[in-house]
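Entry 14. Structure prediction run on the chain below.
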Amino acid sequence: MKNEVVLFKGQRNRYDKAFVTAGAKLVTYGSEHEGTADELEAAINENTACVAS
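Output returned:
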């Protein structure tokens, strides 16, 4: 089952817990200040349910 949520590391906040509470695994990409399209693409796989922004 797809259960991963891809999230830019620079946008992590207290509301991330809502994804985890619902059973998702957070997958972050980039640094706290920037992320590239290549890093985002690399973070997406067959288990990705969504990309959060």
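DSSP finds two helices and three strands in the chain.
Filed with the rest of this week's runs.
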